[in-house]
Amino acid sequence: MSKIEIKNFNLYYGNFHALKDISISIEEKRITAMIGPSGCGKSTLLRSINRINDTIEGVKTEGEVNIEGVNIYNDNVDVDFLRRNVGMVFQRPNPFPISIYENVAFGLRVNRIASSKEIIDETVEKSLKSVLLWDNMKDKLHKSALTLTLEQQQRLCIARGIAVAPHIILLDEPCSSLDPVATREIEELMIRLKDDYTIVIVTHNMQQAARISQDTAFMLLGKLIEFSKTDKIFTNPSKKETDDYVSGRFG
Amino acid sequence: MRKSLDYIIETIIFICGMLSIIFVVLIFSFLLKEGLSFFKDFSFIKFITNQFWYPNSKIPSFGILPLICGSVLVTLGACLIAVPIGVMTALFISEIAPKGVRDILKSLVELMAAIPSVVIGFVGMVTIVPVVKNIFNLPTGLSAFSGSIMLGFMAVPTIVTISEDAIRSVPGQYKEGALALGATKWQTLRRIVLKAAMPGIIAAIMLGIGRVIGETMAVMMITGNAAHVPHSIFDPIRTMTSTIAAEMGETVRGGMHYKSLFAIGLVLFLITFIVNFIADLFLGKNKNL
Amino acid sequence: MKNLVYCFIVFVPLFFTCAHDNKAKTNSIQIKGSDTIINLIQVLAENFVQSHQNLNISVTGGGSGTGFASLINKTCNIAMSSREIGEEEVVLAKQNNVEPIGFKVGLDGLVVIVNKNNPVSKLTLAELRNIFMAKITNWKEVGGQDKTIVVLSRESNSGTHMFFKERVIRNNDINSSDEFTIHSLMMSSSQAVYDEVLQNPNALGYVGMGFVNNKIKGISVSLDKNNKYVYPTADTIIDSSYPISRPLYLYTDGKPKGLVEIFIDYVLSNEGQKVVIDTDFIPLKKNY
């Protein structure tokens, strides 16, 4: 069974039809990339998977997004619980203006996953280790997260997502504000995390998609044009639009 | 041509800037001159520790301890009322209320700020004072408590408008980040939005306190103006500002009483300065976290 | 910087003085002072102006102290006052070459008022004194209910406050330095005293005759337990049997001359004294 199964999904911002009849199945413990020109709806689709779009006024949806067989748009779904299980990393690193330690502990506290100091300490350490921040940061845990470099901030955001033990991690162009070296580092981190999590990444960088993902979805004007193994999308796409885009003729 | 226009505009802006500085300096030096000349004849320590304010007696007694206590008590009371209400309202307006309600509430709050304090004082005198008297079974409703309610009411618009700006300017990505971690709306507001907006909210509270401490007319009408050291918030009190306002018109220019009122102004200035200074320290500390 | 401060301090008052000198040369009388009698003097001035063309009388309040201060600064021709001029003010006047001369123009009784529901209706001067000095703090000590007395006074520099202090609290003893209790509520106007008494059965205050009506209760006062309790009326004030009454004054700089003299004569005339009665004050003599 697929981890995430989206069926005939439509989304409207007011009168604007942003996602048109999307159907896609995303497999467990792989990296799935979503590519396409700006405004094609790839971020919107990603943000539908943890219902963070709900916070925007005037959003309407039709169709289903099933995670492990449950439609998350059902009325009886606990949205806060859903979001705890589906972590998200945003385009711009957005650590909270509190200490590094508290950033990671935040998810644990609000979800009442842990309250004893030992367990929180332990989880903070484990999460920071998995994003390779621990060695540098273990003495600066109580400094403001805003003092970190952008790359470190993005790692911290990933760490704080991991801390609440989600099954799925959504990444929305996580490297767009980072330099090439930092981008490389984050990519390696994602490849390592793939063994434990189902990862969906939106990127405008086709090389990045080619480097790290196993599956790739190509979107255009709110429609899913083609979804297939990454190798196939980049070497032998079956649709003309995909071919035009990946070979750089537009976009 | 364009250069000379540039020069003229720059000069005008410079003059305007200098003028406001000069006015502040002039006012302050006048206050200092009149106030300090009072302390040549009367000890400062006695001035702020003596319990009796009888400026018109044959042997006058200038003790402003009751006035300081009165001002502090009524200000604290007003803050206890205005700060929670103000910040909650700001949160409600900026984060919770649907758009229609928000617009109505915002303009209502702004309207509230535009009501002259005398009017608020008068309305308070005929509404709050008897109610307070009856509810708490007091000898009179003219008390620090009534004053606190009234002043709290006057500080709310300031606190709401400025904290609402601060809350609204918290980057949306903080909120999205918190929600994406499974925080509820209220957890997000309390733990992230309020925290990020804290410097702005504190500034709003300081401005609110400024309005409360400086308020004269409404206080004069409601607090009873008894110059004694209050034992509870339900006692009548007299504030420094209302003393200045009530007595300045009748004093002999240049006399001791006249100078003592300037000295009160100086003490008031000192107190607001200290409060602002502490707030600055607090804000600075918050930034370096 | 220092020069600037001096310029400011010197020129601003100079400017105002000049402006006033110019005004005084035209046919105008400036009257300033006690808020107690401002209504009375206003009516007198309006009547007077009707029979004197090209004359302009401006009447402004601010309190007796303000009136004297303006007379001393020579920014008014007549000061209205509800008390006699003070020693300090006389000294200041001399320094400024001003010689204040006072004219009694009427009488005012201060009435001690309580709420209609208060059973107490008569007090001796000594009891009043003890209440206003917080030696008596409960109504039951003077025959009322077991309730705390809420003592209402006026601001310490109003003429009403000073008169009440000298007459009741100091009992006309110029060597006394007794004061109102610090627990007394200093109300900013007689209206405020009246309003509080109207809605508070525990309150006790003092106001001018003009404020007394049947919504509140005036207290009859006696010199001591052995004397008769006298209710304040025009008659009892003119014959001095009611103890808390005071003269009202107009003060001029030196002997009045010209229009000022004519105006004061008018105030003291039968016609003027009728106005005194009409505005709820007491004339100097009976039978006007």
Backbone structural class of chain C: alpha/beta
* Portion of residues within helices of chain C: 25-40%
CATH architecture of the largest domain in chain C: 3-Layer(aba) Sandwich
> Roughly what is the average pLDDT of chain C, rounded to an integer?
85
Unreliable stretches of chain B: none
Largest interface: B-C, 42 and 41 residues
CATH domain class name of the largest domain in chain C: Alpha Beta
Largest sheet of chain C: 9 strands, mixed
Describe the structure in your own words:
The complex is a heterotrimer of chains A (251), B (289) and C (288). With 251 residues, chain A is α/β, with parallel strands linked by helices. Chain A has a single domain (4-246), classed as P-loop containing nucleotide triphosphate hydrolases (Rossmann fold), CATH 3.40.50. Chain A is 36% helix and 25% strand. Chain A has ten helices and ten strands. A six-stranded mixed β-sheet of chain A has the order 6-7-8-3-9-10, sandwiched between helices. In chain A, helix 7 (180-193) links the parallel strand 7 (168-172) and strand 8. In chain A, helix 4 (117-130) crosses helix 6. The longest helix of chain A has 14 residues, at 117-130. The model of chain A has no long low-confidence stretch (mean pLDDT 88). Chain B is mostly helical and 289 residues long. Helix content of chain B is 78%, strand content 1%. In chain B, strand 1 (53-54) and strand 2 (61-62) form a beta hairpin. The model of chain B has no long low-confidence stretch (mean pLDDT 88). Chain C has 288 residues and is an alpha/beta fold. Chain C folds into two domains: 2-107 and 248-278, D-Maltodextrin-Binding Protein, domain 2 (3-Layer(aba) Sandwich), CATH 3.40.190.10; 108-245, Periplasmic binding protein-like II (D-Maltodextrin-Binding Protein, domain 2, 3-Layer(aba) Sandwich). Chain C contains ten helices and eleven strands. Chain C has helices at residues 2-25, 38-50, 64-73, 87-95, 125-132, 159-169, 190-199, 234-238, 258-268, 270-278, and strands spanning 28-33, 56-60, 78-81, 100-115, 122-124, 150-154, 185-187, 203-208, 216-218, 220-222, 245-253. In chain C, strands 1, 2, 3, 4, 6, 7, 8, 9 and 11 form a nine-stranded mixed β-sheet that branches. Chain C has a two-stranded parallel sheet with strand order 5-10. The N and C termini of chain C lie far apart (63 Å). Classes of the chains: A alpha/beta (251), B mainly alpha (289), C alpha/beta (288). Chain B binds chain C through residues 22, 25-26, 29-30, 51-59, 66, 125-126, 129-130, 133, 139-142, 220-221, 224-228, 236, 238, 246-247, 249-253, 255, 257, and chain C through 1, 4-5, 8-9, 62-66, 68-69, 73, 88-89, 92, 147-150, 155-158, 162, 177, 179, 182-188, 192, 195-196, 199-200, 202-203.
